[in-house]
Write a structure and sequence with these properties.
6-stranded antiparallel sheet; 32 strands; 8 helices; SH3 type barrels
Protein backbone atom coordinates (compact mmCIF):
# COMPACT_ATOMS: atom_id res chain seq x y z
CA UNK A 1 0.00 0.00 0.00
CA UNK A 2 1.03 3.60 -0.47
CA UNK A 3 1.83 5.85 2.46
CA UNK A 4 -1.44 7.69 1.91
CA UNK A 5 -3.33 4.40 1.98
CA UNK A 6 -1.52 3.42 5.18
CA UNK A 7 -2.47 6.70 6.84
CA UNK A 8 -6.09 6.30 5.80
CA UNK A 9 -6.22 2.76 7.18
CA UNK A 10 -4.83 3.91 10.53
CA UNK A 11 -7.15 6.90 10.80
CA UNK A 12 -10.22 4.88 9.81
CA UNK A 13 -9.53 2.43 12.65
CA UNK A 14 -8.94 5.25 15.14
CA UNK A 15 -12.15 7.01 14.06
CA UNK A 16 -14.27 3.89 14.65
CA UNK A 17 -13.18 3.96 18.31
CA UNK A 18 -14.60 7.42 18.93
CA UNK A 19 -17.00 7.32 21.87
CA UNK A 20 -15.37 4.36 23.63
CA UNK A 21 -15.48 4.79 27.44
CA UNK A 22 -13.18 3.15 29.96
CA UNK A 23 -14.75 0.63 32.35
CA UNK A 24 -15.39 0.50 36.07
CA UNK A 25 -14.32 -3.17 36.22
CA UNK A 26 -12.69 -5.77 34.01
CA UNK A 27 -16.02 -6.49 32.27
CA UNK A 28 -17.82 -5.38 29.11
CA UNK A 29 -14.49 -4.33 27.72
CA UNK A 30 -15.60 -4.56 24.08
CA UNK A 31 -18.69 -2.39 24.53
CA UNK A 32 -18.28 1.28 23.80
CA UNK A 33 -20.46 2.51 26.63
CA UNK A 34 -21.46 -0.39 28.95
CA UNK A 35 -19.93 -0.59 32.45
CA UNK A 36 -18.46 2.88 32.08
CA UNK A 37 -16.39 4.00 35.03
CA UNK A 38 -13.20 5.72 36.11
CA UNK A 39 -10.85 2.82 36.79
CA UNK A 40 -8.90 2.70 33.52
CA UNK A 41 -10.09 -0.75 32.43
CA UNK A 42 -10.06 -1.02 28.60
CA UNK A 43 -9.98 -3.51 25.74
CA UNK A 44 -6.78 -1.82 24.61
CA UNK A 45 -4.83 -2.90 27.71
CA UNK A 46 -6.34 -6.41 27.48
CA UNK A 47 -5.27 -6.85 23.85
CA UNK A 48 -1.76 -5.52 24.52
CA UNK A 49 -1.37 -8.09 27.31
CA UNK A 50 -2.35 -10.85 24.87
CA UNK A 51 0.05 -9.56 22.22
CA UNK A 52 2.96 -9.02 24.62
CA UNK A 53 3.36 -5.45 23.43
CA UNK A 54 4.92 -4.14 26.64
CA UNK A 55 7.25 -5.44 29.33
CA UNK A 56 4.29 -6.00 31.69
CA UNK A 57 0.43 -5.94 31.67
CA UNK A 58 -1.00 -2.42 31.88
CA UNK A 59 -4.67 -2.95 32.74
CA UNK A 60 -5.97 -0.30 35.17
CA UNK A 61 -3.30 2.26 34.19
CA UNK A 62 -3.66 5.47 32.10
CA UNK A 63 -4.13 4.35 28.52
CA UNK A 64 -3.76 7.24 26.03
CA UNK A 65 -0.54 5.79 24.57
CA UNK A 66 -1.93 2.26 24.65
CA UNK A 67 -4.79 3.50 22.45
CA UNK A 68 -2.36 4.89 19.83
CA UNK A 69 -0.29 1.68 19.77
CA UNK A 70 -3.46 -0.42 19.59
CA UNK A 71 -4.60 1.47 16.46
CA UNK A 72 -1.24 0.90 14.74
CA UNK A 73 -1.20 -2.81 15.59
CA UNK A 74 -4.81 -3.28 14.52
CA UNK A 75 -4.04 -1.56 11.22
CA UNK A 76 -0.72 -3.21 10.35
CA UNK A 77 -0.14 -6.20 12.63
CA UNK A 78 2.10 -6.47 15.69
CA UNK A 79 5.52 -6.50 14.01
CA UNK A 80 4.89 -3.62 11.60
CA UNK A 81 2.81 -1.65 14.06
CA UNK A 82 5.70 -1.65 16.53
CA UNK A 83 8.24 -0.79 13.84
CA UNK A 84 6.08 2.08 12.66
CA UNK A 85 5.97 3.59 16.15
CA UNK A 86 9.74 3.05 16.58
CA UNK A 87 9.44 0.85 19.66
CA UNK A 88 10.62 -2.68 20.46
CA UNK A 89 8.28 -5.48 21.42
CA UNK A 90 8.31 -5.83 25.20
CA UNK A 91 9.46 -2.24 25.68
CA UNK A 92 8.16 0.64 27.77
CA UNK A 93 6.11 2.40 25.13
CA UNK A 94 2.92 2.46 27.19
CA UNK A 95 4.22 5.68 28.73
CA UNK A 96 4.08 8.97 26.79
CA UNK A 97 7.59 10.08 27.64
CA UNK A 98 9.02 6.69 26.74
CA UNK A 99 7.12 6.58 23.43
CA UNK A 100 8.35 10.03 22.47
CA UNK A 101 11.91 9.01 23.35
CA UNK A 102 11.64 6.01 21.02
CA UNK A 103 10.75 8.36 18.15
CA UNK A 104 13.56 10.69 19.13
CA UNK A 105 16.14 7.91 19.27
CA UNK A 106 15.07 6.77 15.79
CA UNK A 107 15.44 10.30 14.41
CA UNK A 108 11.68 10.54 13.87
CA UNK A 109 10.86 13.38 16.28
CA UNK A 110 9.92 16.32 14.03
CA UNK A 111 9.19 20.01 14.76
CA UNK A 112 5.59 20.90 15.56
CA UNK A 113 5.61 23.20 12.53
CA UNK A 114 6.03 20.15 10.27
CA UNK A 115 3.11 18.16 11.71
CA UNK A 116 1.17 15.97 9.25
CA UNK A 117 -1.86 13.69 9.39
CA UNK A 118 -0.98 10.29 10.82
CA UNK A 119 1.68 11.70 13.17
CA UNK A 120 1.62 10.96 16.90
CA UNK A 121 1.23 14.16 18.90
CA UNK A 122 2.59 14.51 22.45
CA UNK A 123 1.62 17.03 25.11
CA UNK A 124 3.80 18.31 27.93
CA UNK A 125 7.54 18.78 27.58
CA UNK A 126 10.32 16.49 26.31
CA UNK A 127 11.34 14.42 29.32
CA UNK A 128 7.87 14.81 30.85
CA UNK A 129 5.18 14.05 28.26
CA UNK A 130 1.77 13.74 29.88
CA UNK A 131 -0.66 12.85 27.10
CA UNK A 132 -0.75 11.72 23.46
CA UNK A 133 -3.00 11.11 20.44
CA UNK A 134 -3.10 10.66 16.67
CA UNK A 135 -3.27 13.59 14.25
CA UNK A 136 -6.04 13.07 11.70
CA UNK A 137 -6.08 16.49 9.99
CA UNK A 138 -4.02 19.68 9.79
CA UNK A 139 -4.99 23.08 8.43
CA UNK A 140 -3.49 26.55 8.48
CA UNK A 141 -4.49 27.28 12.07
CA UNK A 142 -5.31 23.98 13.81
CA UNK A 143 -4.21 20.42 14.48
CA UNK A 144 -7.06 17.87 14.72
CA UNK A 145 -6.58 14.74 16.83
CA UNK A 146 -8.15 11.47 17.96
CA UNK A 147 -7.16 10.73 21.55
CA UNK A 148 -7.77 7.99 24.08
CA UNK A 149 -8.21 8.57 27.82
CA UNK A 150 -9.44 12.12 27.35
CA UNK A 151 -12.76 13.97 27.32
CA UNK A 152 -14.48 16.35 24.95
CA UNK A 153 -13.46 20.00 24.78
CA UNK A 154 -11.01 21.38 22.27
CA UNK A 155 -7.78 23.36 22.66
CA UNK A 156 -7.48 21.97 26.20
CA UNK A 157 -5.36 18.96 27.09
CA UNK A 158 -7.32 16.55 29.27
CA UNK A 159 -5.27 13.55 30.35
CA UNK A 160 -6.94 10.60 32.05
CA UNK A 161 -10.35 11.80 30.91
CA UNK A 162 -11.90 8.39 30.36
CA UNK A 163 -12.85 8.11 26.69
CA UNK A 164 -11.90 8.31 23.00
CA UNK A 165 -12.72 11.72 21.50
CA UNK A 166 -11.85 13.90 18.52
CA UNK A 167 -10.28 17.21 19.51
CA UNK A 168 -8.36 20.14 18.05
CA UNK A 169 -5.62 22.55 19.14
CA UNK A 170 -4.14 25.73 17.72
CA UNK A 171 -0.90 24.94 15.91
CA UNK A 172 1.06 27.28 18.16
CA UNK A 173 -0.41 25.88 21.40
CA UNK A 174 2.20 25.87 24.17
CA UNK A 175 0.77 22.58 25.44
CA UNK A 176 2.13 20.63 22.45
CA UNK A 177 5.43 19.06 23.50
CA UNK A 178 6.48 17.20 20.36
CA UNK A 179 5.57 15.23 17.25
CA UNK A 180 6.54 11.64 16.42
CA UNK A 181 6.64 10.75 12.73
CA UNK A 182 5.81 7.03 12.18
CA UNK A 183 8.10 5.02 9.91
CA UNK A 184 5.64 4.95 7.04
CA UNK A 185 8.21 3.39 4.75
CA UNK A 186 7.94 0.05 6.61
CA UNK A 187 4.22 -0.19 5.85
CA UNK A 188 4.63 -1.25 2.29
CA UNK A 189 2.47 -4.35 1.98
CA UNK A 190 -0.50 -6.09 3.53
CA UNK A 191 1.56 -9.18 4.41
CA UNK A 192 3.69 -7.26 6.89
CA UNK A 193 6.76 -7.20 4.66
CA UNK A 194 8.38 -3.84 4.13
CA UNK A 195 8.78 -2.90 0.50
CA UNK A 196 12.00 -1.79 -1.06
CA UNK A 197 11.70 1.63 -2.57
CA UNK A 198 12.68 1.82 -6.21
CA UNK A 199 12.96 5.57 -6.13
CA UNK A 200 15.32 7.86 -4.33
CA UNK A 201 15.79 11.57 -3.97
CA UNK A 202 17.13 12.89 -7.28
CA UNK A 203 20.53 14.54 -7.31
CA UNK A 204 20.03 16.84 -10.29
CA UNK A 205 17.65 19.72 -10.91
CA UNK A 206 14.86 18.78 -13.31
CA UNK A 207 13.17 21.41 -15.48
CA UNK A 208 10.08 20.59 -17.51
CA UNK A 209 7.42 22.57 -19.35
CA UNK A 210 4.09 23.04 -17.58
CA UNK A 211 1.23 25.15 -18.90
CA UNK A 212 3.64 27.05 -21.13
CA UNK A 213 5.93 27.84 -18.19
CA UNK A 214 8.16 25.76 -15.94
CA UNK A 215 7.98 22.98 -13.40
CA UNK A 216 11.33 22.88 -11.61
CA UNK A 217 12.21 20.12 -9.12
CA UNK A 218 15.23 21.01 -7.01
CA UNK A 219 16.82 18.47 -4.62
CA UNK A 220 17.85 20.05 -1.32
CA UNK A 221 21.31 18.58 -1.91
CA UNK A 222 21.76 20.94 -4.89
CA UNK A 223 20.82 24.11 -3.00
CA UNK A 224 23.82 26.21 -2.01
CA UNK A 225 21.64 29.04 -0.74
CA UNK A 226 17.96 30.00 -0.86
CA UNK A 227 16.58 33.26 0.46
CA UNK A 228 13.86 35.87 0.25
CA UNK A 229 14.94 38.91 -1.78
CA UNK A 230 13.24 42.18 -0.94
CA UNK A 231 12.68 44.88 -3.56
CA UNK A 232 15.54 47.37 -3.85
CA UNK A 233 13.16 50.30 -4.33
CA UNK A 234 10.17 51.46 -2.29
CA UNK A 235 8.06 51.29 -5.47
CA UNK A 236 8.95 47.74 -6.34
CA UNK A 237 11.43 45.91 -8.55
CA UNK A 238 11.17 43.54 -11.50
CA UNK A 239 12.19 39.89 -11.47
CA UNK A 240 14.68 40.64 -14.25
CA UNK A 241 16.27 43.34 -12.13
CA UNK A 242 16.74 40.95 -9.20
CA UNK A 243 18.28 38.37 -11.52
CA UNK A 244 21.13 40.75 -12.43
CA UNK A 245 21.34 42.64 -9.11
CA UNK A 246 21.21 40.12 -6.30
CA UNK A 247 24.49 38.37 -5.49
CA UNK A 248 25.79 35.97 -2.85
CA UNK A 249 29.46 35.07 -2.59
CA UNK A 250 29.99 37.18 -5.72
CA UNK A 251 27.55 34.98 -7.66
CA UNK A 252 24.27 35.73 -9.36
CA UNK A 253 21.31 33.49 -8.41
CA UNK A 254 20.56 30.57 -10.72
CA UNK A 255 16.80 30.73 -10.18
CA UNK A 256 14.55 33.68 -9.31
CA UNK A 257 10.75 33.66 -8.97
CA UNK A 258 8.21 36.16 -7.71
CA UNK A 259 6.98 35.48 -4.18
CA UNK A 260 4.56 37.04 -1.73
CA UNK A 261 1.35 38.85 -2.50
CA UNK A 262 1.42 42.57 -1.77
CA UNK A 263 -0.90 45.55 -1.52
CA UNK A 264 -0.65 47.30 -4.85
CA UNK A 265 0.15 51.00 -4.48
CA UNK A 266 1.59 50.66 -0.99
CA UNK A 267 3.99 47.75 -1.61
CA UNK A 268 3.21 46.29 1.80
CA UNK A 269 2.96 42.49 2.14
CA UNK A 270 -0.44 40.81 1.88
CA UNK A 271 0.81 37.29 2.53
CA UNK A 272 3.27 36.09 5.13
CA UNK A 273 6.90 37.05 4.78
CA UNK A 274 9.94 36.86 7.05
CA UNK A 275 13.09 38.63 5.87
CA UNK A 276 16.53 38.50 7.51
CA UNK A 277 15.07 37.36 10.82
CA UNK A 278 12.25 39.94 10.91
CA UNK A 279 8.63 38.83 10.53
CA UNK A 280 7.37 41.60 8.25
CA UNK A 281 3.87 40.16 8.00
CA UNK A 282 2.67 37.03 9.75
CA UNK A 283 -0.66 36.57 8.05
CA UNK A 284 -2.74 33.49 8.75
CA UNK A 285 -1.37 31.05 6.21
CA UNK A 286 1.39 28.42 6.52
CA UNK A 287 4.92 29.16 5.34
CA UNK A 288 7.79 27.59 3.51
CA UNK A 289 10.84 28.64 5.46
CA UNK A 290 14.46 28.51 4.39
CA UNK A 291 16.24 26.91 7.34
CA UNK A 292 19.83 28.17 7.63
CA UNK A 293 19.30 29.62 4.14
CA UNK A 294 19.76 26.03 2.93
CA UNK A 295 16.76 23.79 3.50
CA UNK A 296 13.15 24.56 2.58
CA UNK A 297 10.76 23.41 5.33
CA UNK A 298 7.06 23.71 6.05
CA UNK A 299 6.39 26.07 8.95
CA UNK A 300 3.25 27.19 10.71
CA UNK A 301 2.05 30.71 11.30
CA UNK A 302 3.37 31.83 14.67
CA UNK A 303 6.10 29.20 14.68
CA UNK A 304 8.48 30.28 11.91
CA UNK A 305 12.04 29.57 13.01
CA UNK A 306 13.83 30.12 9.69
CA UNK A 307 15.45 33.53 9.06
CA UNK A 308 13.66 33.87 5.71
CA UNK A 309 10.22 32.48 4.84
CA UNK A 310 7.27 33.13 2.52
CA UNK A 311 3.65 32.39 3.26
CA UNK A 312 1.15 30.82 0.88
CA UNK A 313 -2.30 32.11 0.05
CA UNK A 314 -3.81 29.54 0.20
CA UNK A 315 -2.07 26.25 0.96
CA UNK A 316 -3.22 24.22 -2.06
CA UNK A 317 -1.85 20.80 -0.99
CA UNK A 318 -1.57 19.51 2.57
CA UNK A 319 -0.54 16.01 3.54
CA UNK A 320 -0.52 15.02 -0.11
CA UNK A 321 -4.16 15.97 -0.60
CA UNK A 322 -5.67 18.89 -2.48
CA UNK A 323 -8.04 20.87 -0.32
CA UNK A 324 -8.64 24.63 -0.35
CA UNK A 325 -11.07 27.42 -1.07
CA UNK A 326 -9.96 29.86 -3.72
CA UNK A 327 -9.76 33.31 -2.08
CA UNK A 328 -11.76 36.16 -3.53
CA UNK A 329 -9.83 37.83 -6.31
CA UNK A 330 -7.82 34.72 -7.19
CA UNK A 331 -10.62 32.84 -8.93
CA UNK A 332 -10.79 31.90 -12.59
CA UNK A 333 -7.99 31.64 -15.12
CA UNK A 334 -4.80 33.45 -14.10
CA UNK A 335 -1.06 33.09 -14.41
CA UNK A 336 0.12 31.08 -11.36
CA UNK A 337 3.24 30.82 -9.20
CA UNK A 338 3.52 28.14 -6.50
CA UNK A 339 6.04 26.18 -4.40
CA UNK A 340 5.77 22.68 -2.97
CA UNK A 341 7.70 20.17 -0.84
CA UNK A 342 8.15 16.44 -1.48
CA UNK A 343 10.59 14.72 0.84
CA UNK A 344 13.87 16.52 0.20
CA UNK A 345 12.79 18.13 -3.07
CA UNK A 346 11.54 21.69 -3.63
CA UNK A 347 9.06 22.07 -6.49
CA UNK A 348 8.40 25.36 -8.28
CA UNK A 349 5.63 26.01 -10.80
CA UNK A 350 5.19 29.19 -12.84
CA UNK A 351 2.62 29.04 -15.65
CA UNK A 352 2.68 31.15 -18.81
CA UNK A 353 -0.89 30.16 -19.52
CA UNK A 354 -3.80 31.46 -17.47
CA UNK A 355 -5.29 28.49 -15.63
CA UNK A 356 -7.48 27.80 -12.55
CA UNK A 357 -5.65 27.27 -9.26
CA UNK A 358 -6.90 23.65 -9.34
CA UNK A 359 -4.62 22.88 -12.30
CA UNK A 360 -1.51 23.71 -10.27
CA UNK A 361 -2.73 21.85 -7.18
CA UNK A 362 -3.52 18.76 -9.28
CA UNK A 363 -0.01 18.78 -10.73
CA UNK A 364 1.59 18.80 -7.28
CA UNK A 365 -0.70 15.97 -6.11
CA UNK A 366 0.04 13.93 -9.24
CA UNK A 367 3.79 14.33 -8.58
CA UNK A 368 3.33 13.12 -4.94
CA UNK A 369 4.05 16.45 -3.26
CA UNK A 370 3.06 16.54 0.41
CA UNK A 371 2.65 20.31 0.73
CA UNK A 372 2.30 23.26 -1.63
CA UNK A 373 1.43 26.94 -1.37
CA UNK A 374 0.12 29.44 -3.88
CA UNK A 375 2.27 32.55 -4.33
CA UNK A 376 1.55 35.83 -6.09
CA UNK A 377 0.15 35.22 -9.56
CA UNK A 378 -1.52 37.11 -12.37
CA UNK A 379 0.62 39.95 -13.69
CA UNK A 380 3.28 39.13 -11.06
CA UNK A 381 4.07 35.57 -12.19
CA UNK A 382 7.62 35.46 -13.52
CA UNK A 383 10.79 33.41 -13.40
CA UNK A 384 14.41 33.20 -14.44
CA UNK A 385 16.35 29.93 -14.64
CA UNK A 386 19.81 29.10 -15.99
CA UNK A 387 18.40 28.58 -19.49
CA UNK A 388 15.18 30.59 -19.71
CA UNK A 389 13.46 33.75 -18.56
CA UNK A 390 9.94 35.09 -18.34
CA UNK A 391 11.04 38.30 -16.66
CA UNK A 392 8.00 40.49 -17.04
CA UNK A 393 8.09 44.27 -16.55
CA UNK A 394 5.83 44.46 -13.50
CA UNK A 395 7.42 45.81 -10.34
CA UNK A 396 6.92 43.51 -7.36
CA UNK A 397 7.69 43.49 -3.65
CA UNK A 398 9.51 40.23 -2.97
CA UNK A 399 11.18 37.25 -4.60
CA UNK A 400 12.74 33.86 -3.89
CA UNK A 401 16.29 33.40 -5.17
CA UNK A 402 18.21 30.11 -5.31
CA UNK A 403 21.93 29.58 -5.78
CA UNK A 404 22.72 26.05 -6.94
CA UNK A 405 25.89 24.18 -6.09
CA UNK A 406 28.31 24.67 -9.02
CA UNK A 407 25.79 27.08 -10.53
CA UNK A 408 26.87 29.57 -13.19
CA UNK A 409 24.15 32.17 -12.79
CA UNK A 410 20.82 32.69 -14.52
CA UNK A 411 19.87 33.26 -18.13
CA UNK A 412 19.76 37.06 -17.88
CA UNK A 413 23.00 37.41 -15.92
CA UNK A 414 24.84 35.20 -18.41
CA UNK A 415 23.44 37.13 -21.38
CA UNK A 416 24.36 40.47 -19.89
CA UNK A 417 27.70 39.67 -18.30
CA UNK A 418 28.79 36.51 -20.07
CA UNK A 419 30.70 34.20 -17.76
CA UNK A 420 31.46 36.94 -15.25
CA UNK A 421 30.53 35.84 -11.76
CA UNK A 422 30.11 39.37 -10.50
CA UNK A 423 28.52 42.40 -12.08
CA UNK A 424 31.04 44.75 -13.70
CA UNK A 425 30.79 48.43 -12.95
CA UNK A 426 27.83 49.81 -14.90
CA UNK A 427 28.42 52.23 -17.73
CA UNK A 428 27.43 55.76 -16.75
CA UNK A 429 24.77 57.13 -19.07
CA UNK A 430 23.03 60.47 -19.44
CA UNK A 431 19.46 60.98 -18.35
CA UNK A 432 18.58 63.20 -21.32
CA UNK A 433 17.17 62.32 -24.67
CA UNK A 434 18.34 64.08 -27.82
CA UNK A 435 15.21 64.25 -29.92
CA UNK A 436 15.51 63.56 -33.60
CA UNK A 437 13.23 65.91 -35.56
CA UNK A 438 12.15 63.07 -37.79
CA UNK A 439 11.02 61.15 -34.73
CA UNK A 440 9.27 63.94 -32.89
CA UNK A 441 5.83 62.42 -33.45
CA UNK A 442 7.00 58.86 -33.38
CA UNK A 443 8.32 56.57 -36.09
CA UNK A 444 7.27 52.93 -36.47
CA UNK A 445 10.20 50.53 -36.25
CA UNK A 446 10.44 46.75 -36.58
CA UNK A 447 12.73 44.45 -34.56
CA UNK A 448 15.28 42.72 -36.79
CA UNK A 449 16.98 40.53 -34.18
CA UNK A 450 15.55 37.21 -32.99
CA UNK A 451 15.40 38.74 -29.49
CA UNK A 452 16.03 42.35 -28.44
CA UNK A 453 16.28 43.60 -24.86
CA UNK A 454 14.21 46.62 -23.93
CA UNK A 455 16.34 48.27 -21.21
CA UNK A 456 15.72 50.82 -18.49
CA UNK A 457 18.55 53.05 -19.71
CA UNK A 458 20.94 53.32 -22.65
CA UNK A 459 23.48 50.78 -21.46
CA UNK A 460 24.04 47.04 -21.73
CA UNK A 461 24.44 46.98 -17.97
CA UNK A 462 20.97 48.37 -17.26
CA UNK A 463 17.88 46.46 -16.26
CA UNK A 464 16.10 44.39 -18.90
CA UNK A 465 12.49 45.48 -18.75
CA UNK A 466 11.22 43.26 -21.54
CA UNK A 467 12.47 41.01 -24.34
CA UNK A 468 11.15 41.93 -27.78
CA UNK A 469 10.72 39.27 -30.49
CA UNK A 470 11.63 39.36 -34.18
CA UNK A 471 9.16 41.39 -36.24
CA UNK A 472 7.61 43.13 -33.23
CA UNK A 473 6.68 46.77 -33.83
CA UNK A 474 7.79 49.68 -31.61
CA UNK A 475 7.53 53.45 -31.88
CA UNK A 476 10.79 55.45 -31.88
CA UNK A 477 10.84 58.88 -30.20
CA UNK A 478 14.53 59.85 -30.07
CA UNK A 479 18.19 59.10 -29.39
CA UNK A 480 20.27 58.68 -26.31
CA UNK A 481 24.06 58.62 -26.85
CA UNK A 482 23.30 58.25 -30.60
CA UNK A 483 23.39 54.44 -30.51
CA UNK A 484 20.28 53.87 -28.43
CA UNK A 485 16.67 54.50 -29.41
CA UNK A 486 14.03 55.47 -26.91
CA UNK A 487 10.95 53.48 -27.89
CA UNK A 488 7.47 52.47 -26.76
CA UNK A 489 5.91 49.07 -27.45
CA UNK A 490 2.36 48.49 -28.65
CA UNK A 491 1.41 47.48 -25.10
CA UNK A 492 2.85 50.71 -23.67
CA UNK A 493 6.22 49.49 -22.31
CA UNK A 494 8.94 52.14 -22.60
CA UNK A 495 12.71 51.86 -22.68
CA UNK A 496 15.86 51.76 -24.78
CA UNK A 497 16.91 49.43 -27.57
CA UNK A 498 20.15 49.23 -29.49
CA UNK A 499 19.83 51.11 -32.78
CA UNK A 500 21.41 48.40 -34.96
CA UNK A 501 18.58 45.91 -34.29
CA UNK A 502 15.56 47.93 -35.45
CA UNK A 503 14.63 49.47 -38.79
CA UNK A 504 11.91 51.76 -40.09
CA UNK A 505 8.75 50.05 -41.24
Amino acid sequence: MTIQEAKKKLLDIAATEEGYLEKATNAELDSKTANAGRNNYTKYARDHAQWGTYHAPKQGLPWCDMFVDWCFIKAFGLALGMKATCQPKGGYGAGCTESYNYYKAAGKAVPVAEVQEGDQIFFGKPGSMTHTGIVYKVDNARIYTIEGNTSSGSNTVIANGGGVFKKWYYRNSASIGGIGRPKWDVLGSEDSKPTTSTSSTPTTVKYSEFQGGIFAEIPFSRIDRIEHIKMADARGETTGSVAIRATWNDRFPDIVINAELFNYGKYTPASGVKHKGTMEYQGWQPFIGFKDYKMPIQEARGAVTSPDAVGGYPAIVQNGVKGFTVPKGLEGNKYRTAMGLKGKVLGIIVTEKQVPMDVVANKFVAEKYEFAINLDGGASSSYVTPTAAWARPNKLRGFVAIWLKSGKGNYLSKRQYGNHAVQPKPVKSENWIETDKSAANGVKMKVTASELNLRASASTSSEVRFVLKYGETVTWYGYQTKSWYYVRTVSGKEGYVYKAYVKKV
